[in-house]
Write a structure and sequence with these properties.
13 helices, 242 residues, 7 strands, two-stranded antiparallel ribbon, RpiR-like, alpha/beta, MurR/RpiR family transcriptional regulator, 5-stranded parallel beta sheet, DNA-binding
Length: 242
Amino acid sequence: MFTHSAIASLNNLEMMVYNYVIKNPDKVMYMTIRELADEAGVSTTTVLRFCRKLNCEGYSEFRVRFKLYLEQNEPQQANFGASEIMSFFRSVNNEEFDNLLDDAVNIILQSERIIFVGAGTSGALAKYGARFFSNVGKFSNHIDDPYFPVTSDMAKNALAIVLSVSGETEEILRFASQFSLHRCKVLSVTSHENSSLAKLADFNLSWHVQPMRIAGVYDITTQIPVIYILESLGRKLARRLA
């Protein structure tokens, strides 16, 4: 029901409905469309658009299909954040997402050099990604300094894999733009394919969990989906290089 393509098609308001539904499955089963809209902080029109993007004619059909979906999957865990993580893995456990990973690996293989880019937590994951890829036989570097100079020499025949939760960080967008100007391909890994970074990139892999910040500043959004994507790419790459 919650396929990768369906979730990727949701806009920001529809994602608010999705996040509420995933976190509160037992409540949603007995809610009217107005009650769900109020709890999610959106309009009933947004809820209807959300239902239609999940291939449901209306809210009634959504509730029926959602009930069947819950019955066919494991019960939601009570642990913090587990429902979002479980939902992510269900959304990518299909041939469609596997094909996207294969397409990304093809781009990686065509590039002589791989440069992972990120800032903050994404910078730490850029370092991890570079080491993981190097371990499987594709030597890679990482940049976690948003003011590191991008030159035509470093960008030649290279692929920049740019990591960003929001895909809207000004410094990261500047980085990606500079790589593009030097004719370096950009592969982005973001939380939503409608972000500015995803649109700027040559290829995007998106993951979908609710962003979380402390005091509206410090980002504590889970990075488990990013690690999964990087390791999946690395393992596929290892098989192709063997």
